[in-house]
Backbone:
């Protein structure tokens, strides 16, 4: 492979000629069996799940739940010294939000809490959707996210 553009047929041929299926399977098993942790909370009307994959010192987190799990927001939180000057850690976050989605609050909360607690870069994406959710339902989701964040 010379670094120029590549089509899928060339990529498949390269992989087949240079990697055995056993090598690929070992990596899949390592990720599937030991590196992903799932945190779950049953709500009165649904379930919320948080999948956490540790990548070196960093974390890739996915929030999923409701009737229509989706990617509504992605939040990248980066640790930095707090501006208070007390030597504590804080976070600077960047947000990419899908138009009309309200998932930023839960993804930002998880991303920033884990970032600060672990002093690590965190990417949190996902979405929780229930049609016609009530204010009490929203409050229940937010409370569940706060409880799960402590466990990560």
Residues:
């Amino acid at each position: 492979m010379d670094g120029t553009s590549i089509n899928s047929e060339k990529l498949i041929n390269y992989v087949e000629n240079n990697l055995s299926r056993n090598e690929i399977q070992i990596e899949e098993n390592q990720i599937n069996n030991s590196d992903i942790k799932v945190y779950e909370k049953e709500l009165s009307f649904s379930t919320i799940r948080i999948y956490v994959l540790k990548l070196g010192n960093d974390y890739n987190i996915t929030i999923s739940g409701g009737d229509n799990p989706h990617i509504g927001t992605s939040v990248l939180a980066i640790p930095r010294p707090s501006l208070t000057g007390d030597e504590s850690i804080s976070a600077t976050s960047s947000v990419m939000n899908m138009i009309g989605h309200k998932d930023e609050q839960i993804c930002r909360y998880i991303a920033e809490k884990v970032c600060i607690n672990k002093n690590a870069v965190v990417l949190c994406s996902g979405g929780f959707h229930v049609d016609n959710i009530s204010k009490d339902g929203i409050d229940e989701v937010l409370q569940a996210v706060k409880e799960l964040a402590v466990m990560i």
In short: The helical segments are 8-18, 21-35, 104-118, 135-151. Residues 135-151 form the longest helix (17 residues).
